[in-house]
Design brief:
Length: about 260
């Protein structure tokens, strides 16, 4: 009886040790799988960010800049002013800064900043009203003013567009001006055109251009989105798996204590 008890005790100890060993092996295996999955998910997420469409994922980039020198004078908006630019990549026009002034103080006055298509190097049809600039944002001397953007517009790589100042009302003759400069080598300026009093003139050759700075935000390529979403899905799956593994460990430990 004592010998049998000793055998039974040894067997019970053996079973417990094996059970403990199983739990330990399960924990180690889960940890290794966790590390591998975490590493892969992080690499996928990082890759998705790194291979986004140039010049970077969701980073505004200057695509046109004629603000690098002092103004030479100012043109009134009644002359029908516009400046062309070409989108270097597919993205969203996300920022417009202009060198403008309001020559009188009237809180009711304003003008619109409009985006036009190109028609044989002349302003074509209106595409969007990007924002409205109230006189309250301006001083009586020209200064660089960031346009409050209320409507974004998707740009196509290699396509020319125009920025025009419009809808200024009957007060424009005594209110709004756009500063002109002689900048032919700024970012995106070379090869573009200015529209002045019904004429289209080549910048740097026939005429000066107006102070303008534009930024564009890239749209990720489909392949980049797939990789980025795969990384995100991996991280979400990883979190769910950790929860399931935790439940398994609790069940095993509960079974151990219950036995």
């Amino acid at each position: 009886m004592c010998a049998r008890a000793g055998v039974d005790s040894a067997f019970a100890t053996s079973v417990k040790m094996e059970r403990y060993a199983d739990v330990d092996v399960f924990k180690v295996g889960t940890s290794m799988a966790f590390v591998r999955s975490l590493t892969l998910s992080v690499l996928l997420a990082v890759a998705g960010v790194m291979i986004g469409a140039p010049p970077g994922l969701a980073q505004p980039t200057v695509i046109y800049d004629s603000t690098g020198s002092s103004g030479l004078g100012a043109d009134n908006l009644t002359l029908g002013l516009a400046e062309s630019f070409t989108a270097p990549f597919t993205g969203v026009l996300s920022g417009v800064t202009l060198g403008v002034a309001a020559l009188a103080n009237n809180t009711a006055a304003s003008f619109d900043v409009a985006l036009y298509s190109d028609s044989n190097t002349t302003p074509g049809s209106a595409l969007a009203i990007l924002g409205t600039v109230p006189a309250t944002l301006l001083s009586t001397t020209s200064s660089l003013v960031s346009v409050p953007i209320t409507q974004t517009y998707g740009l196509t790589a290699g396509t020319r567009y125009w920025i025009a100042l419009a809808n200024y009302g009957s007060l424009a003759s005594s209110f709004f001006t756009w500063e002109y400069v002689s900048v032919a080598s700024g970012i995106g300026v070379a090869g573009e055109y200015t529209f002045y009093d019904g004429e289209v003139l080549a910048i740097g050759n026939d005429a000066n251009n107006h102070q303008m700075l534009l930024t564009e935000t890239a749209i990720p390529e489909p392949a980049s989105l797939v990789v980025l979403l795969s990384g995100a899905a991996g991280l979400l799956g990883l979190r769910r798996r950790r929860g399931i593994d935790g439940q398994h460990r609790q069940q095993r430990q509960g079974g151990r204590h219950g036995g």
